[in-house]
């Protein structure tokens, strides 16, 4: 297990969309390192032949019928939006790609 | 060599193919035609008012949870079976994590390393100067996921995302069941790569249509393609590939492959390096522009979706679905070739023109197979090509053809008038009957009117009557022609001829 | 019948059904109690007196009309603020959801309404249920009614404190790693984390979807069982909901019998690291169970020592994904939308401003654990450990009917004591976490006060998946024996506020 650097924290902040402050970068790199070291013990477990468990109760094939149910009203759908226009959610401009 | 405004340089296709081999791969997204969305009961109707087909689930509201649409799973299995895939005995959904405002949860529920269907193939036929050639396109996987909302970019000069001041989101499309069909790399197509790509997408579309799982309308976005392509010199290892997105018509699939071959060949010719990147295809120019570089790509942090339980289709269910599969387009083509007694070339041109199903449907209405083919691959195909649209997009139906044909048989229309009827149908002038009425297209069958026209024609050419009466019956053609002209083609020429000879007391 | 707010739920329901008191009187008594003491306790984030009284009035109308009512009809309840309730503020203790009013009811709320349980309001919690002290609420900490300088546990400290302060006889919690049981333990109340899938998660703002489970909280085992029965059962809106009959928890709570029951003491959960008074009361409780006819044996679950590590990888991983949607686009807070900033920038500024430090810490931890190159070592390995822990439980349940341990290693600690020491805070959950990893059910009930600090100690009972009735069978018996011994419920020893 590797230790976590300030640059790692900055990268994680970008991936997780958190505009971290300088002091947070310091603080979190320290804390995440401590936490990761404390959880690192799980790597001691020899688990090569152990199947990973993603769901606690084994169940399969839970489906619903393909039936249309009432939607929200548009008013309900848009009620909590920070900004709307023309019955749509208004969002800031998208800069990263054409 | 040509240069575009984006700075991309292209060399002619044939030149590119003289030095490089292309390797292609195609990812196709198909929106399933279910009644309700993938995880909730909202309607999937296209074209409804913005944000009227949304609920806590497809809006990703805090606390909401997805439940899988059974028909979507069933459709995916049927697609997998039609593409000769294995169907997973057990597979999970996975979350693909990335932030984007058209995605309400900021993750997409998809499938990652456990697709529902895998390892299949689809054979496609391409016309070559040496006759039809079959290519086997291997299918890597078919998996289930969900569509995103629709963004509209506002402000700025172009209306495009670039330069926009802000964007508006309609989440009606968010959560519509989407399946992704990914091919393995297709090698050995050589200069036929653009045609193979197009033939594959077309065949895939026909399969979807035969299965009835989607309306596969590329123009409405219910089927969308991304084309991966790399070039290498013969004998060298594979080159770096680009991914061209936004390829949204059959014609564009072919053009996108061709364009990318021309571009990459130019880069390589100049000693450059092809960048692993996403490119965006533009229908208007037929060229693509560089998008996001894959080297800066997001880390999607896939993990099994904990809110959904695994899908484990029983073998009984899979076999039941297999038994219910309709006739596949390739099988159907072989059958029709036999039934209609046509050769490979005719079959290929029927299939490639998109006329096959239309002809079959027309025959089902009782029209003779020769006549059905004649109309669809003649007059109507010409118009479709002229307009640059698919045959089936024309406003003429198999039923229209049946009506016209039965009027021809009864003598009420002739070929020339029939063409005018189709002209009217294509112009949206109404039904066959309405067009005949408004355009006055009935064959003149009133003997009196025809005899009057004959008399007029004979009076204008007195010598002709003598010739005919003296035995030169072939001279009748001139009079018949004059009568046809006088009746603006609305007469039955054979009938005119018969009346003329009777008038002159001549028998054949 | 004395102060209405001091009565237990089953007593109140009976009094309402027999018209001894009206539901409106009962609700008003609790609203008054909240007005009187919640300034000190801060158990509630939001109280809707009008809606509660209207609901109570409707119950009285049904009583008057002779309608057959459920066993908790007219009884007031505090709802953890992580559950969506239509038209009512639902914040999950976070600034990022300040002012959000859901357009829909969670399944738990629908079932509470169907049972005619009166919802007083929303209770305080650690932000997005991340914490063991309720100090991570963006709206201020909740105080433990036993000692206002101490934490009420977390994340569901508001629900537990509301019970202990007699502000409500019933409450709903959610338990991802102990958020129902640990607050119950440190407040002298009862809380049950049902089998995963036993109670619908639909409408519960997700923390870690494969661990989360809503459950009942009350002051007695029977009240807890009645509430459990009201909210449990299959829900087609939750794909992970168990489609099978709910075990008869109410009958089990009434039977309250451990004769012939085999009770396994988990060797790894106890001893070193556990406060002396906790261990002492725990030992006494085991003796009582034995005296009641249970067979108490020691069992070993060797993989449990890795549970905390696995949990603190799985939880942040799932949480980092579940909390992605709080991006300021569709609801909640939006920061930095000045017409110039791009969407990525606005999302980042919103999340930076809207989330508290513990939430950010866990989001980053989870983002890290899932990122390419680390997945196998962290998330993948944690899921394998999860399998081993489940196997330990399965092996143990082949020998015994239920397993037991102290619920928490200590009694309530002081506010602020562990606030910026995440590891110390996480260690609080060491005994409760294995249950969530395996998806089984567990209960915490009070077994006395620790001699050294006079604060409540909790006893944890764990049962195999879908055998939640065993929790009530054993818990009911232990509660009855202790109540006999004390002459009253432990909660009645709580100080006046």
In short:
Helices cover 38% and strands 20% of the residues of chain B. Chain B is of the alpha+beta class. A 9-stranded mixed sheet of chain B has the order 5-8-9-12-3-13-14-15-16. A 3-stranded antiparallel sheet of chain B has the order 7-6-17, with no helix packed on it. A two-stranded antiparallel sheet of chain B has the order 1-2.
Written account of the structure:
- Chain C: Belongs to the amidase family. GatA subfamily.
- Chain C: Residues 25-471 form the Amidase domain.
- The complex is a heterotrimer of chains A (98), B (508) and C (497).
- Chain A is α+β, with helices and mostly antiparallel strands and 98 residues long.
- Chain A has a domain at 1-45: Histone, subunit A (Orthogonal Bundle), CATH 1.10.20.
- Chain A has helices at 6-15, 22-39, 74-78; strands at residues 63-64, 84-85, 88-92.
- The longest helix of chain A is centred in the first third of the chain and has 18 residues, at 22-39.
- The model of chain A has no long low-confidence stretch (mean pLDDT 92).
- Chain B has 3 domains: 2-296, no CATH class; 327-439, no CATH class; 447-504, Arc Repressor Mutant, subunit A.
- The N and C termini of chain B lie far apart (68 Å).
- With 497 residues, chain C is α/β, with parallel strands linked by helices.
- The longest helix of chain C has 24 residues, at 376-399.
- Chains in contact: A-B, A-C, B-C.
- At the A-C interface, helix 1, helix 2 and strand 3 of A face helix 10, helix 11, helix 12, helix 13 and helix 14 of C.
- Strand 3 (88-92) of chain A pairs antiparallel with strand 11 (166-170) of chain B.
């Amino acid at each position: 297990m590797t230790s976590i650097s300030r640059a790692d924290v900055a990268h994680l902040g970008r991936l997780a969309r958190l505009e971290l402050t300088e002091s947070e970068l310091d603080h979190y790199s320290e804390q995440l390192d401590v936490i990761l070291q404390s959880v690192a013990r799980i790597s001691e477990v020899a688990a090569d032949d152990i199947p990973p468990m993603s769901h606690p109760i084994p169940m399969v094939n839970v489906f619903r019928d393909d039936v249309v149910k009432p939607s929200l009203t548009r008013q309900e759908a848009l009620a909590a939006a920070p900004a709307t226009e023309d019955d749509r959610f208004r969002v800031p401009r998208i800069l990263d790609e054409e | 060599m040509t240069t575009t405004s984006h700075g991309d340089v292209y060399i002619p296709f044939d030149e590119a193919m003289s030095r490089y081999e292309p390797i292609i791969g195609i990812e196709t997204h198909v929106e399933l035609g279910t009644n309700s969305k993938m995880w909730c009961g909202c309607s999937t109707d296209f074209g409804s008012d913005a944000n009227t087909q949304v609920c806590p689930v497809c809006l990703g509201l805090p606390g909401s949870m997805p439940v899988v649409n059974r028909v979507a799973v069933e459709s995916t299995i049927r697609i997998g079976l039609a593409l000769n895939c294995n169907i997973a005995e057990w597979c999970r959904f996975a979350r693909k994590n990335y932030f984007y405002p058209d995605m309400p949860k900021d993750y997409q529920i998809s499938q990652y390393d456990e697709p529902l269907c895998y390892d299949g193939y689809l054979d496609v036929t391409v016309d070559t100067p040496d006759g039809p050639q079959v290519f086997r396109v291997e299918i890597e996987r078919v998996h289930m996921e969900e569509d995103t909302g629709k963004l509209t970019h506002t402000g700025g000069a172009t209306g495009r995302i670039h330069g926009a001041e802000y964007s508006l989101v309609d989440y009606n499309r968010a959560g519509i069941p989407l399946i992704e069909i990914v091919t393995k790399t297709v090698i050995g197509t050589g200069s036929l790569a653009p045609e193979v790509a197009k033939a594959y997408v077309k065949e895939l579309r026909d399969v979807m249509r035969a299965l009835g799982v989607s309306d596969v309308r590329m123009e409405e976005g219910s089927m969308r393609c991304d084309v991966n392509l790399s070039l290498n010199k013969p004998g060298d290892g594979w080159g770096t590939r680009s991914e061209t997105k936004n390829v949204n018509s059959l014609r564009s699939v072919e053009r996108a492959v061709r364009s990318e071959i021309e571009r990459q060949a130019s880069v390589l010719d100049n000693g450059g390096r092809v960048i692993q990147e996403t490119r965006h295809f533009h229908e208007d120019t037929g060229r693509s522009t560089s998008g996001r570089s894959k080297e800066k790509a997001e880390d999607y942090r896939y993990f099994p979706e904990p809110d959904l339980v695994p899908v484990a289709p029983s073998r009984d269910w899979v076999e039941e679905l297999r038994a219910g599969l309709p006739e596949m387009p390739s099988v159907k083509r072989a059958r029709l070739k036999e039934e209609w007694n046509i050769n490979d070339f005719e079959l290929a041109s029927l299939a490639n023109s998109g006329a096959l199903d239309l002809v079959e449907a027309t025959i089902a209405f009782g029209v003779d197979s020769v006549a059905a083919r004649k109309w669809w691959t003649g007059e109507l195909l010409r118009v479709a090509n002229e307009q640059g649209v698919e045959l089936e997009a024309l406003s003429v139906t198999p039923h229209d053809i049946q009506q016209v044909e039965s009027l021809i048989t009864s003598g009420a229309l002739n070929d020339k008038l029939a063409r005018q009827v189709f002209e009217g149908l294509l112009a949206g002038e109404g039904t066959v009957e309405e067009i005949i009425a408004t355009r006055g297209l009935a064959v003149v069958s009133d003997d009196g009117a025809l005899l009057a026209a004959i008399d007029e024609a004979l009076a204008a050419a007195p010598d002709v009557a003598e010739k005919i009466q003296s035995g030169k019956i072939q001279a009748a053609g001139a009079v018949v022609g004059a009568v046809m002209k006088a009746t603006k083609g609305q007469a039955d020429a054979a009938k005119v001829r018969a009346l003329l000879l009777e008038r002159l007391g001549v028998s054949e | 019948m004395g102060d209405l707010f001091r009565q237990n739920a089953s007593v109140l329901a009976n009094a309402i059904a027999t018209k001894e008191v009206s539901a409106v009187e009962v609700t008003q008594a609790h609203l008054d109690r909240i007005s009187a003491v919640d300034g000190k306790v801060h158990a509630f984030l939001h109280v809707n007196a009008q809606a509660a009284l209207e609901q109570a009035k409707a119950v009285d109308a049904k009583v008057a009309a002779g309608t057959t009512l459920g066993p908790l009809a007219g009884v007031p309840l505090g709802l953890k603020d992580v559950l969506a309730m239509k038209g009512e503020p639902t914040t999950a203790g976070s600034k990022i959801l300040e002012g959000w009013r859901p357009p829909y009811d969670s399944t738990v709320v629908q079932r509470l309404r169907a049972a005619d349980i009166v919802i007083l309001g929303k209770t305080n919690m650690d932000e997005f249920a991340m914490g063991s002290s309720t100090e991570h609420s963006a709206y201020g900490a909740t105080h433990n009614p036993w000692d206002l300088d101490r934490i009420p546990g977390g994340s569901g400290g508001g629900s537990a404190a509301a019970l202990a302060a007699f502000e409500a006889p019933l409450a709903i919690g959610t338990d991802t790693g102990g958020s129902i049981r640990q607050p119950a333990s440190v407040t002298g109340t009862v809380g049950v984390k049902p089998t995963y899938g036993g109670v619908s998660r639909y409408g519960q703002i997700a923390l870690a979807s494969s661990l989360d489970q809503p459950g009942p909280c009350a002051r007695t085992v029977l009240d807890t069982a009645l509430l459990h029965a009201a909210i449990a059962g299959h829900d087609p809106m939750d794909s992970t909901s168990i489609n099978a009959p709910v075990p008869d928890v109410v009958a089990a709570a009434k039977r309250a019998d451990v004769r012939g029951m085999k009770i396994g003491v988990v060797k790894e959960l106890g001893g070193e690291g556990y406060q002396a008074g906790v261990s002492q009361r725990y030992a006494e409780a085991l003796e009582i169970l034995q005296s009641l006819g249970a067979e108490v044996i020691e069992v070993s679950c060797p993989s449990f020592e890795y549970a905390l590590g696995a949990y603190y990888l799985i939880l942040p991983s799932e949480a980092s994904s579940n909390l992605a949607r709080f991006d300021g686009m569709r609801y909640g807070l939006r920061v930095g939308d000045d017409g110039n900033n791009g969407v990525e920038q606005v999302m980042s500024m919103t999340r930076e401003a809207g989330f508290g430090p513990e939430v950010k810490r866990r989001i980053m931890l989870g983002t890290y654990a899932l990122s390419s190159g680390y997945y196998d070592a962290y998330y993948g390995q944690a899921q394998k450990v999860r399998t081993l822990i489940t196997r330990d439980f399965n092996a143990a349940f082949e020998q015994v009917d239920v397993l037991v341990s102290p619920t928490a290693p200590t009694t309530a600690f002081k506010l602020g004591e562990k606030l910026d020491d995440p590891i110390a805070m996480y260690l609080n959950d060491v005994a409760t976490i294995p249950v969530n990893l395996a998806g089984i059910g567990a209960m915490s009930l009070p077994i006395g006060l620790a001699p050294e600090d006079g604060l409540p100690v909790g006893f944890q009972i764990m049962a195999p998946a879908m055998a939640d009735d065993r929790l009530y069978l054993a818990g009911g018996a232990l509660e009855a024996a202790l109540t006999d011994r004390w002459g009253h419920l432990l909660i009645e020893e709580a100080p006046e506020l």
